[in-house]
Amino acid sequence: MLVAHPVVLYMLVERYESLCARPAGEDDQAGRHRDDLAVALCAATGTPDVEAALRAARRLLPGTGEEAGGS
Per residue in 45-65, is it b (16+ CB within 10 Å) or e — as a string? Predict the structure, then answer.
């Protein structure tokens, strides 16, 4: 399986989480951007949904304390 470069993966996670942290409002463009990022995260991690993608990204990213091969 191809895996996104850690920098790209980190940027996707950061952008997605920052949009999720925004208060809900009338900003449809932000919602569409968040949905696009969710699709990109799923594609980058080979997972079927955004929650699984975020878990996979955290395992793949260095410095998160959840790296693969830690045990």
Answer: bebeebeebbebbeebbeeee
